[in-house]
Specification:
The complex is a heterodimer of chains A (about 160) and B (about 180). Chain A has helices at about 1-15, 30-35, 40-45, 45-50, 90, 120-125, 130-145; strands at about 35-40, 55-65, 70-75, 80-85, 100-110, 150-160. By secondary structure, chain A is of the alpha/beta class. Chain A is globular. Chain A starts with a helix and ends with a strand. Chain B has about 180 residues and is of the alpha+beta class. Chain B folds into three domains: about 1-40 and about 130-150, no CATH class; about 40-115, no CATH class; about 155-183. Chain B contains five helices and five strands; from the N terminus they run H-E-H-E-E-E-E-H-H-H. A five-stranded antiparallel β-sheet of chain B has the order 1-5-4-3-2, covered by helices on one side. Chain B starts with a helix and ends with a helix. Classes of the chains: A alpha/beta (about 160), B alpha+beta (about 180).
C-alpha cells in the first residue's frame, strides 16, 4: 500500500513535468527575449498590420476578471489606452495580485469580429457580482471599446512579470 | 475470476483513490456555485478612510505611500495614476486604493486568497495549464467508472434491476426537470 502512495507521488510528479510553472513568470523565456516588445500604444497603432500575428507587448495590468482571472486588461500610457488579454489554456489564469504589475505578454493579436469574441461583462458575470472597482473598470473599458473603430484583443500564450 | 468480482475490486480501489479528487471538486463546486453571492477565490476587505487634503498633496508617490502606511492590512504601494476624473488610483499588492485628492476621501480594497479553496478553485476551473486538463479528464473517467460499476455490485432484492434502477432514474429526473424548465 505504501508503494501505491509512492507510485502516485512519482506519477503526479512525472505528469507535472512540463506543466506551466506555478507563477508562470519563467514560461517561454526565449521568445520573450528575441521578439520586439511593443508598448500598448504602439500595438494599437499598428493593430491592423499585426492582426492574426504573434506579438509581444508590455503594459500595466489595469483590471483582472474577478471570476477566475480568465482575462485581464493592460493599460498603456493612460487608462483610455487598453487591450484585453485572454489567458486561454496556455496561461491558464491571471490573478488579482497581478493588478498594477508591469507584465510582458506573448500572444496572438485578434480582431473582434463576432459577439462571442467581444468582452461582454454583464452576460459573463451577472449584474449582482460587480463591485465598485469592477464597475469603474468596465465603464472605462466600455468607453474605450466604443471609441475604437476596430476592436482588438490578445489570445495569450505566455506571461512574464517584469 | 468472475466479472462481478473483478468490478468489485476495481470499484473498491479506484473508489478509495478518487476520494481526494471528489472532495476537491465538490468543495470548490459549492464555492463556484455561489460566485454571484461572494468572491469564491478571495476574501475582500473594503473600507473608506479620510485624510486632511490641505496637509497632504495626494498625487505624489511619497505622500501616497505615507497615506497607505496608515491604513490597516499592511498594504504595499505598487504604482499609481490619475484617472480622467482626477481620482488617484493606487495599485497595491493585492488590491487598490482610490483617493480623491481634493476632498481627502478614499477607499481601499484589499484581497486575501482563501486558503486551500483558492487552489481547489484553480483545479476545478482547469486554469493551471494543459497537463492538468488531461489529468483531470483521467480522474473524471475513473469517477465515472466507479459510479457505473457501483450499479452492478449488489445482486438480489436490493440489486440494480429490482431496486437501484429506480433510484438511478430519480437521480436523472432532478437535473432533467431543471433542464426542461430553465434551459
Amino acid at each position: 500500500m505504501k508503494n501505491l502512495v509512492l507510485l502516485s507521488i512519482v506519477a503526479a510528479f512525472l505528469f507535472s513535468c512540463g506543466q506551466a510553472p506555478k507563477n508562470q513568470e519563467a514560461k517561454n523565456e526565449e521568445p520573450l527575449k528575441e521578439a520586439v516588445v511593443l508598448s500598448i500604444d504602439d500595438l494599437l497603432a499598428q493593430a491592423s498590420d499585426l492582426a492574426d500575428k504573434e506579438v509581444v507587448v508590455k503594459g500595466t495590468v489595469m483590471h483582472v476578471c474577478k471570476e477566475g482571472g480568465a482575462r485581464c486588461f493592460l493599460m498603456g500610457s493612460g487608462e483610455e489606452i487598453t487591450i484585453r488579454v485572454e489567458a486561454g489554456e496556455k496561461i491558464g489564469a491571471f490573478t488579482q495580485e497581478q493588478m498594477g504589475s508591469e507584465v510582458q505578454i506573448v500572444g496572438i493579436l485578434k480582431e473582434v469580429k463576432s459577439e462571442a469574441e467581444a468582452h461582454n461583462p454583464g452576460a459573463e458575470h451577472g449584474e449582482a457580482t460587480e463591485d465598485a472597482e469592477t464597475q469603474d473598470a468596465h465603464k472605462i473599458l466600455a468607453e474605450n471599446q466604443a471609441a475604437a473603430e476596430r476592436e482588438f484583443f490578445i489570445e495569450g500564450i505566455a506571461v512574464k512579470e517584469l | 475470476m468472475k466479472i462481478r468480482k473483478l468490478l468489485r475490486i476495481f470499484h473498491r480501489d479506484l473508489g478509495y483513490f478518487i476520494v481526494g479528487m471528489t472532495i476537491v471538486y465538490v468543495v470548490s463546486g459549492i464555492f463556484l456555485n455561489h460566485r454571484h453571492d461572494f468572491n469564491p477565490d478571495y476574501s475582500i476587505y473594503s473600507e473608506e478612510f479620510s485624510f486632511d487634503p490641505n496637509a497632504k498633496d495626494a498625487t505624489n508617490k511619497a505622500t501616497l505611500i505615507a497615506i497607505i502606511n496608515d491604513l490597516p492590512h499592511d498594504l504595499k504601494y505598487k504604482k499609481h495614476y490619475i484617472d480622467s476624473e482626477g481620482m488617484v488610483k493606487v495599485f497595491i499588492e493585492s488590491g487598490e486604493v482610490v483617493i480623491n485628492p481634493d476632498s481627502g476621501k478614499g477607499v481601499f480594497r484589499y484581497l486575501e486568497r482563501r486558503p486551500v479553496i483558492f487552489g481547489m478553485n484553480k483545479l476545478h476551473r482547469a486554469a493551471i495549464g494543459t497537463v492538468w486538463k488531461w489529468v483531470s479528464d483521467i480522474m473524471a473517467f475513473i469517477l465515472l467508472f466507479v459510479a457505473v460499476t457501483g450499479l452492478f455490485l449488489l445482486k438480489g432484492k436490493r440489486g440494480f434491476i429490482r431496486w437501484g434502477l429506480w433510484w438511478m432514474i430519480a437521480g436523472f429526473v432532478v437535473p432533467l426537470v431543471f433542464i426542461l424548465i430553465f434551459v
